[in-house]
Amino acid sequence: MKTILIIITLIIATTGWTQNVTQPITDTSMVVGVVKEDCLGKILDYCSVSTDKEFKKGTTVIVCGIQECKKNYSNVIIINKDVVQYYEICRNKQTYYIERDKLATMPNVYEEIALLSSDHADTFKKNAQNTAELIYKSELRKALNFLSACKPKGLVITKWSLYDVSEYTEGTGLRISVYNPTQKTIKYLWITVTGFNPVDDKVVDRHRGTSNITVKAVGPIEPDHTSSFEFDYVWFTDLVETGQINSIKVQYMDGSLKMIGNPKQIEMGKYLYDIIYEED
User: How deeply is 178 buried, as exposed, middle or buried, from its count of CB atoms within 10 A (0-12, 13-18, 19+)?
Assistant: First the structure.
């Protein structure tokens, strides 16, 4: 496992991707790539796209094969010159396909994989899947350790975001999903947030006369369960560009209270969220 992580670290540190590759790829090789720009990894069903997952620029992925698909318009497959080349990616127990020109790898990787025999290509893929599985299990342990560390704090913020309420009115809303890591049922949450305009000034709500806005989420949120909430018009303005959760007060069904003064400590973050919640 350490060897795998060291290899990945070295590849991430490489910025030029111009090394001379003299040793051909074999069925025992491990190929790692880095996403060159924000893009969608596709799940292909006989070259028909069924689902997309976003991959951010700089994401490290393990290549487990290649795929060539003819473009499809209105479910009609057309001529050979419209072939799209994909790298097959093994990640978090799932297989995705990223277009060749959106993934940075060592030179001639695609051509080298294409030269593998069918049996060697199968072995290459199986080895890549095993490596990806090892990394997934390691990252899953980190995610589960994070959840465990949040138990005494009383709550986990799995994800949250701001949104424009309507194109016809001025208003910014808040979406938030939370997980209850405790053995007690949550009754209410009071979430205090601050909004910032594009130049990072606090946005003072003209109706309330303050920059600190508190919204109330009503449970119940059972132990080991996740709930999502949406609040329209937290701010009666479209000036809010970013936001900050300042504090959360939790009330449990037994009447006990817990104050979370540093919600950053309980924010899961997108990477850990994907590890736990990404579908198999």
Answer: buried
Scan for tokens 């817990």, then name that residue: 258
What's the CA gap between 118 and 82, in Å, rounded? 24
Distance CA 266, CA 181 (A): 11
CB 84 within 8 A of CB 98: no
Cβ count within 10 A of residue 203: 19
Contact 230, 175 (CB under 8 A): yes
Q: Would you state the pLDDT for residue 41?
A: 78
Residue 150 is which amino acid? C
The two structure tokens encoding residue 276:
């736990």
Q: Which residues have C-beta within 8 Å of that of residue 10, sequence separation ≥ 6?
A: none
Q: Using omega within 30 degrees of 0 as the cis cutoff, is the peptide bond preceding 263 cis?
A: no
> Residue 59: helix, strand or coil by DSSP?
coil
Ramachandran angles phi, psi of 201, nearest 5°: -85, 145
Residues comprising the chain, all counted: 280
Residue matched to tokens 């795998």:
4
Contact 137, 37 (CB under 8 A): no
- Residue found by looking up tokens 């790692």 in the block: 32
Give dist(CA 270, CA 274) in Å, integer. Answer: 6
Query: Model confidence over 103-160: pLDDT tens digits?
Result: 988 888 899 898 899 999 899 999 998 888 888 888 888 888 888 888 999 999 999 9
Q: Tell me the per-residue pLDDT of 171-195, one tens digit each, with 9 for 90 and over.
A: 899 999 999 999 999 999 999 999 9
The answer to whether 151 touches 91, Cβ cutoff 8 Å, is no
pLDDT for res 181? 92
